[in-house]
Design a protein that fits this description.
- Helices cover 29% and strands 21% of the residues.
- It is of the alpha/beta class.
- It folds into two domains: 108 residues, no CATH class; 288 residues, TIM Barrel.
- The strands form four sheets. Strands 1, 2, 3, 4, 5, 16, 17 and 18 form an eight-stranded mixed β-sheet that branches.
- The longest helix has 18 residues.
Length: 496
């Protein structure tokens, strides 16, 4: 774990994003040259552990030191530039290269090309949330009961969540569980321009077993025929991803996260049927057996991968990690903003993000956003927590951009600043390679070529510190603690 500073007990974190001055400067219908001091492309750099960067304008210190060299570098065209044409990227390079490129284009009227200069900023691909629950953000329980107004209220929640994501720089999000296929409807509304939000990859309801994890909001199946039917029905309803609850979970009564919910044969049929229909696949999997079965079935994405056993602890399995790496599966370990505090109180629930990465597993930024105590606006704090548990900062940035795009089935579409990709990008003051906190200081948010003016958001309260040891475990660790206590009591019983 890195020595990452944590907020003081009870402190309200400062990831509030103020509105951009001047309203929307990019309308998504024009050709615009966008210039910054540097841009991060979303590719790896030539040196190990680095990111590809275009532009080399020197940083300007807080007291203005370095302003002269920085201005000279800008005049020389050494900053980064992106040429946007409607919703797509036409060119990426230095400012000098972009200007030369424009002068050579006979198909573009230079006089009609706009220009937006953001000195002092870093341009990068828009952030991506790979594991979201749009419908329940801001609720105190995972399955709120809205009575006869359920669909309307959940739809409004989803629309609000979409704006909240954009307001913190998230331009794409994978919805992994949504009642009534509301995420499909919200995706369509965003695509049509009816509401503002990130690109949405929709799964509809999770496929689970009868009384299985998330059965309140899922599609319950108990046979191979039912599995095939639900996959086909999800396809009919327009989902992008088929999500299966391969193990139990923590937030459904009577569901044990370490137990597999489906046999190997059942998962084989589910994943094969989804792939036959051209669908991406994702598996909720905590326990080792469920992870193993999902990977062997050919799943594309695993959520959690906490390696929970019946002993009530996370117990890393190196052989299974190697198998996951060979399979090329993408994994979100659900490292949330409160994870550092949780682990300091009780490390029994410790998703092995660092260990998986060391074994070559492709780690991405997914936070289970929308469940209680995990709001969408805590995204950047979740990235900081991912660094805190040991993922190098460059890897965190890749996990939140280009690798995340591939993980949700959007490879070649978004997540990279390159010719032909869609114009999903953000600009931040400062350099996120120096500190992820720079991601909170947004100077531009663009989705599909159109600027979004962020909403003003409340900060997220930090969990109280447990320096005196009186509060005990929280979150999943609390559930596991109950199980460990029960198991220990059983061991004290005499042989009879």
């Amino acid at each position: 774990m890195t020595d990452y500073p944590l907020p003081a007990p009870g402190e309200i974190t400062g990831w509030t994003t103020p509105p951009t001055d001047g309203g929307e400067r990019l309308d998504g219908r024009s050709t615009v040259l966008l210039t910054v001091d540097r841009l991060i492309t979303g590719r790896r750099g030539d040196a190990p552990g680095t990111l590809e960067v275009v532009g080399d304008v020197p940083d300007v210190g807080p007291d203005g030191e370095g302003a002269g060299p920085a201005e000279a570098a800008r005049r020389a065209g050494r900053g980064g530039a992106v040429l946007l044409d409607h919703k797509r990227i036409l060119f990426v390079g230095t400012v000098a290269e972009a200007e030369a490129h424009l002068s050579s284009r006979t198909d573009l009227a230079v006089a009609d090309i706009g220009r937006l200069d953001l000195p002092g900023s870093t341009l990068m691909p828009g952030l991506i949330e790979t594991h979201d629950h749009l419908l329940t953000s801001g609720t105190a329980v995972e399955y709120p009961d809205y009575g006869p107004h359920e669909v309307a209220r959940l739809t409004l929640n989803a629309a609000r969540s979409a704006r909240e994501l954009l307001s913190v720089g998230v331009t794409s999000a994978q919805s992994l569980g949504a009642r009534h296929y509301i995420d499909v409807a919200v995706r369509e509304a965003i695509d049509n321009g009816d509401v503002r939000g990130p690109r949405v990859v929709a799964s509809g309801p999770q496929i689970t077993t009868t009384a299985g994890h998330s059965y309140h909001a899922g599609a319950e199946v108990d046979s191979l025929d039912q599995i095939r039917y639900e996959v086909r029905y999800h396809h009919k309803m327009g989902v992008d991803t088929i999500k299966v609850m391969a193990t139990g979970g923590f937030m459904t009564g009577g569901s044990a996260p370490w137990f597999a919910q489906f046999s190997q044969g059942e998962l084989d049929v589910l994943i094969a049927e989804a792939h036959r229909l051209g669908k991406w696949t994702a598996a909720h999997a905590h326990g080792v057996q469920g992870i193993e079965r999902a990977v062997r079935a050919g799943v594309d994405y695993v959520a959690h991968a906490s390696f929970i056993t019946a002993d009530g602890r996370s117990e890393f399995d190196p052989a299974l990690a190697d198998e996951m790496a060979r399979a090329g599966v993408y994994v979100d370990c659900t490292i949330t903003a409160d994870m550092p505090q949780m682990l300091r109180r009780d490390d029994s629930y410790a998703p092995p993000a660092r260990q998986l990465w060391e074994h070559g597993v492709k780690i991405v930024a997914g936070h289970d956003a929308g469940i209680p105590a995990v709001p969408q606006r805590g995204y950047v704090a979740g990235l900081e927590a991912l660094e805190w548990v040991g993922l190098p900062r460059a890897e965190v940035i890749l996990a939140a951009t280009s690798r995340a795009a591939a993980a949700i089935g959007c490879a070649g579409i978004t997540g990279v600043l390159a010719e032909g990709f869609e114009a999903d990008l953000i600009a931040v003051a400062g350099d996120p390679r120096e500190s992820l906190d720079a991601l909170r200081d947004l100077t531009l948010v663009v989705t599909r070529g159109r600027e979004f003016v962020p909403d003003r958001l409340e900060g997220v309260p930090v969990l109280l510190d447990d320096s005196l040891g009186g509060l005990g475990p929280i979150g999943p660790a609390a559930t596991l603690g109950v199980w460990r206590t029960l198991a220990e009591r059983r061991r004290t019983h005499p042989e009879v």
